[in-house]
Amino acid sequence: MSLQKVCLVIGAGDATGGAVARRFAREGFAVCATRRSADKLAPLLEQIRSAAGVAYGFGSDARNEDEVIALVEQIESTIGPIEVLVFNIGANSPNSILTETARRYTKMWEMTCLAGFLTGREVAKRMVAREVPSAQPGVAHKGTIIFTGATASLRGSAHFAGFSGGKMALRALAQSMARELGPMGVHVAHTIIDGAIDTEFIRTLFPQRYALKDQGGILNPDHIANAYWMLHQQPRDAWTHELDLRPYMETF
């Protein structure tokens, strides 16, 4: 098997993660998509393959260090070098601080931050070690790592202590990685998705909010994916580290 350039999407769900996977597949990437349950990836993989794209699905728990190490090793040795990593795990589960449990709080931190650290570290090790053509002066662009954030990355709201704590920690991780890895040729970006996204979850539970779709009041996952592709395309003299995406009617 000839090795292909790879986009690894951790948390390739039905909205943002799936849209990002489809977008990079259209650009010629072999997409490696993960969810905790591999069976749930079947519709996404079929969409990509039916459009003549290349896609592989993996069931993996991104909180488990051994599983993350094995996943990255398998992809790099049998499919190709990971040129883009998109970490897209959410774990939004609101609850009052008066009834929150240590178990739930810890789980949200593990999903939003620890998993980002584990996958980011393992992929970064591979990226910085890449050899680049000698014809490229200076430090060449060796890869892109994008962490998906949320409104909670910037401020904590009532009932969102666990989610906010994890998302703010993920933002700090992205900042630290960007400062260390940027000079080594790795573009690290953090996106703040501030607003409702066009999903079945919003359609079912928040019908009044979903009714704003025709007015451009909720985020289209495909448009989010276009922004992620833009981030990967940027030249290293004008890299964006943090990108806010929100509907025009969303308050700051």
The chain-level mean pLDDT equals: 93
Radius of gyration: 18 Å
The proportion of residues forming helix, as a percent range, comes to 40-55%
CATH fold description = Rossmann fold
> Quick one: how many beta strands?
7
Provide the β-strand percentage band. 15-25%
Backbone structural class: alpha/beta
Structural shape: globular
Reading the helices and strands in chain order gives EHEHEHEHEHEHHHE
Query: Which CATH top level class fits?
Result: Alpha Beta
Would you identify the CATH architecture?
Answer: 3-Layer(aba) Sandwich
CATH superfamily: NAD(P)-binding Rossmann-like Domain
How many domains? The number is 1
Please render the helix and strand layout as text:
Blueprint: E1 6-10, H1 16-26, E2 30-35, H2 42-50, E3 54-59, H3 65-78, E4 82-87, H4 102-128, E5 143-150, H5 161-181, E6 186-193, H6 200-205, H7 207-210, H8 221-233, E7 242-245
Parallel strand pairs: 1-2, 1-4, 2-3, 4-5, 5-6, 6-7
From the structure above, extract its key features.
252 residues, Rossmann fold, 8 helices, 7 strands, globular
How would you describe this structure to a colleague?
- The protein is α/β, with parallel strands linked by helices.
- It has a single domain, classed as 3-Layer(aba) Sandwich (Rossmann fold), CATH 3.40.50.720.
- Helices cover 42% and strands 17% of the residues.
- The protein is built from eight helices and seven strands.
- A seven-stranded parallel beta sheet has the order 3-2-1-4-5-6-7, sandwiched between helices.
- α1 (16-26) packs across α8, α3 runs parallel beside α4 (102-128) and α4 packs parallel to α5.
- It is globular, with a radius of gyration of 18 Å.
- The N and C termini lie far apart (49 Å).
- The mean pLDDT is 93.
